Amino acid sequence: MGELNRLDEASIVQCDIGIRIAAEEAPKFELHQPTGHRLQGHHPFLHAQCEQRRKFKLKLLHFFINTGISDTAYYWNELGKCVNVYCDLKKLCPTLDTLDIGGHAVKSSLNFSFDADYMIGEIVGRIKDICDENKVQEPNIYSEFGSFTVSDCGATFFSIIDQKKQNEKERWNMIDGSFMTTLPDTWAINKRFIMLPINNWEDEYERSSSVV
């Protein structure tokens, strides 16, 4: 709670605050990311911290789920636990009225397939059901772009300086750079990035891989 202590010292007026809580990491996830407080047992502690500092009103609870929004058993399980934490805190802090469920519900590749209507309906429905069971007002719901698009825009340009025949079907493009250095998410969290050529569009398509 060091950040809260510093904010308490710097702030002279009443302000709204949000708390970010990390869900359990997905099984076999490549990279450990300490991105927030853990879920277990924090509700009374968080409430006590806000009670001690009357200038702060808890308004938002933000959950970091490392896989992003996805139609998987892991995501639905973690979302359920997150919403239950919201309900517990809502009973302690009536000012809490907003839930940030994380991100990644956007295109992450050219062959991206995402049933947005289904996912939105399922997420909203599950949140409402859990809130009804706990007899608390359902929250305002926010989402984010997620790890794939965390800035307004961005691009990395490489030139292919040579080509190596790997087998009968594939050729390796040798580039003047390194994915390991410039796109660390490719190896750290198994992210794939949209790749498009800026020239030679008229050439015949061939299956190839870019290498460092």
Describe this structure in words.
The protein has six helices and eight strands, in the order αββαβαβαβββααβ. α3 links the parallel β3 and β4. The chain is α/β, with parallel strands linked by helices and 212 residues long. α3 packs parallel to α4. The protein starts with a helix and ends with a strand.
Structure described in brief:
By secondary structure, the chain is an alpha/beta fold. 31% of the residues lie in helices and 21% in strands.
Count the helices. How many?
6
The CATH homologous superfamily of the largest domain is termed: Alanine racemase
The fraction of residues assigned to DSSP E strands is 15-25%
- The beta-strand count equals 8
Structural class by secondary-structure content: alpha/beta
